[in-house]
């Protein structure tokens, strides 16, 4: 829905405008006073438009525009004018700040068309919610069993996975199913400014210690989720280790981590003793490219939510779209899939989404798991993986960015059979 705020003293005109807007798919909100208008502006969603009379109860369109500027709002204001001459209309739009005008006697003819120039669709992208999204792969069934098993205990845990794979949702599901679910759950971003608890300057102890202890006191009896724990500085690692080893807080700690955390532990850039306290148990979330059977149910979930939010018929993927989605490497995992599918749903002109509606990002970082053949020691694995994803050697050559003839030579070189199996 696109929201339109109507500010007009005339009750009959408010009803007229509201009726016209509803018929054309808008969500009108009608008020008659300056005070009510300010209250509603503060609640307007992005993309809304204000239609305001030149004068209304205890206010004017000009005063409302000036108030918006003072408060930092930028909603476009369309002014309703009563028989102004051309010079007066120019003043309203130039110096008055209105983006356009509607002649009151012609509201039934001008309102919808004029508002349509400035109304923007509401949010089309959906945030990933905390609940787990239904999936079909056996790998995720294993994860769901692990979630239940960990939740039944009181141990710390680490959730490993690439960016956008849904690690935080898994951490929160463990919290929800645990005996600590009635106590607080605090989420901390290890690499961001959010890791700044309260500090008393009069206290002679370490500021970092004071701030971090504040989190544990606030979450007493509950759970702390540390996102991207690999980004903790060495000082914060030491403080966290001290708290866990010496103060034994009544808090379960669940961390999410990039797969590189294991390497950091072996290289001693992340303290091994802290790592093993945080990771009595762990869960590894596979990247989406390794569980392509989850792509269709995930996409269906996002399309259902999108249709419900916009009060539209649900759009569906055709065979070409499904194939294209399964061939994409998904460096951004589930988050990238969501944005790609919903972008296509928003821009598709029909209820069927085809491959031509999909817009894959062309500016992804050059990841180590790219299928580009440039490291002989890994090329064999990449060729087999490309065949597994595409289901044919023609598709594999396309994924690898080489010709089919070159791929035949690579298969001979690495002793790879016709069905993608290593040959002895």
Structure description:
The chain is α/β, with parallel strands linked by helices. About 45% of the residues lie in helices and about 15% in strands. The chain has 17 helices and 14 strands. The protein has a five-stranded parallel β-sheet with strand order 2-1-3-6-7, with helices on both faces. It has a five-stranded parallel β-sheet with strand order 9-10-11-8-12, with helices on both faces. The protein has a two-stranded antiparallel sheet with strand order 4-5. It is flat. The termini are far apart.
| Structural class assignment | alpha/beta
Low-confidence stretches: none
Shape: flat
Any idea how many domains? 4
CATH superfamily of the largest domain, by name, is P-loop containing nucleotide triphosphate hydrolases
* Helical content class: 40-55%
Q: Count the beta strands.
A: 14
Largest sheet: 5 strands, parallel
What portion of the residues fall into strands of 2 or more residues?
5-15%
Q: What is the radius of gyration? A: 29 Å
* CATH hierarchy, class of the largest domain: Alpha Beta
N/C terminus separation? 62 Å
User: Count of DSSP helices?
Assistant: 17
Residue-averaged pLDDT: 85
What's the CATH topology label of the largest domain?
A: Rossmann fold
CATH architectural type of the largest domain: 3-Layer(aba) Sandwich
Strand order of the largest sheet: 2-1-3-6-7
């Amino acid at each position: 829905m696109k929201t339109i705020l109507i500010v007009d003293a005339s009750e009959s005109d408010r009803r007229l405008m509201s009726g016209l807007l509803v018929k054309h798919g808008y969500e009108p909100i009608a008020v008659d006073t300056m005070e009510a208008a300010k209250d509603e502006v503060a609640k307007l969603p992005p993309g809304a438009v204000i239609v305001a009379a030149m004068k209304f109860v205890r206010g004017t369109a000009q005063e409302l525009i000036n108030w918006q500027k003072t408060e930092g709002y930028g909603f476009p204001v369309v002014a309703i004018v009563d028989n102004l001459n051309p010079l007066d209309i120019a003043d309203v739009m130039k110096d008055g700040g209105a983006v356009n005008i509607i002649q009151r006697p012609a509201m039934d003819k001008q309102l919808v068309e004029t508002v349509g120039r400035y109304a923007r669709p509401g949010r089309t992208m959906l945030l990933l919610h905390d609940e787990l999204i239904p999936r079909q792969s056996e790998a995720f069934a294993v994860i769901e069993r692990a979630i239940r098993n960990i939740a039944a205990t009181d141990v710390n845990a680490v959730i490993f996975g690439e960016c956008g794979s849904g690690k935080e949702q898994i951490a929160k599901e463990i919290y929800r199913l645990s005996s600590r679910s009635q106590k607080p759950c605090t989420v901390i971003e290890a690499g961001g400014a959010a890791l700044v608890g309260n500090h008393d300057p009069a206290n002679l102890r370490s500021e970092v210690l004071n701030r971090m202890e504040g989190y544990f006191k606030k979450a007493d009896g509950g759970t702390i989720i540390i996102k991207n724990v690999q980004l903790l500085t060495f000082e914060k690692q030491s403080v966290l280790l001290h708290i866990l080893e010496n103060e034994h807080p009544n808090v379960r700690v669940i961390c999410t981590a990039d797969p590189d955390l294991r390497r950091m532990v072996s290289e001693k850039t992340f303290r091994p003793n802290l790592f093993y306290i945080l990771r009595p148990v762990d869960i590894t979330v596979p990247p989406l490219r390794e569980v392509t059977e989850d792509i269709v149910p995930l996409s269906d979930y996002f399309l259902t939510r999108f249709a419900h939010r916009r009060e539209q018929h649900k759009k569906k993927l055709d065979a070409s779209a499904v194939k294209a989605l399964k061939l994409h490497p998904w460096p951004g995992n589930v988050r990238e899939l969501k944005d790609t599918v919903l972008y296509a749903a928003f821009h598709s002109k029909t209820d069927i989404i085809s491959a031509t509606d999909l817009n894959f990002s062309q500016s992804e970082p050059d990841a180590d798991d790219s299928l580009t053949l440039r490291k002989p020691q890994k090329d064999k694995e990449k060729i087999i993986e490309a065949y597994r994803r595409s289901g044919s050697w023609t598709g594999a050559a396309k994924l690898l960015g080489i010709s089919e003839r070159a791929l035949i030579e690579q298969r001979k070189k690495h002793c790879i059979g016709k069905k993608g199996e290593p040959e002895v």
